[in-house]
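Predict the 3D structure for this chain.
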Amino acid sequence: MEGSGFEYFVVSMSHDYRAGWIKRFGKGIKRNYELSKGVRMKDNFPPTVEIGIDEDSGDMLTDIIPNIGMDLIVSEKVKKILESEGLVESDTLEYLPFVLKGKRGRVVKEQYFFVNSFLKIDCLDREKSDFSTYSGSDEVCDVNGVYLLLDKVPEKTKLFRLGEYASVILLRSDLVERLNSEGVTGLSVVGMGVDLFDDPDEDDDW
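Done. Predicted structure below.
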């Protein structure tokens, strides 16, 4: 295999309707549309920001919370696992704490975080991937299925954003295995070429 010898998986939209999920990010976040852009957000994202679990979602609170933006929203447990894997706050990564409210408006005691990576790597395999570009441009405006040019990904990279479309977050296979082995709930990833929005039950209520 090219590159590091590892596979990579795309963080995808969970379709486990038992889980509580987040549809709206609420008030108090300045320039909230930049959460998926791979830019530093800490100055625009105070820890007092309140975000609620959607009242129409499931009752199960998972370690990684499903959300419509396919952002990586994790519990303190998952944050500690990521940090033990070397994914500590740096010039390429920040953890954004916030106040999580349950379906009935009560504050959840456990702390949750947005995992915001600034590391963007241009490595989209344009020949194999399923994506769209803006009219008259080669700039990517939408991605459905991802294939990577693995030789473009540095060997030690465990978590990064797709440079051509930063809302796509990728995890290295050994990190996915570690999260699963630690019993992390709510993790939803797909392999190369798989439709990011495919619902195996064909019943999408997002």
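The two ends are 37 Å apart (CA to CA).
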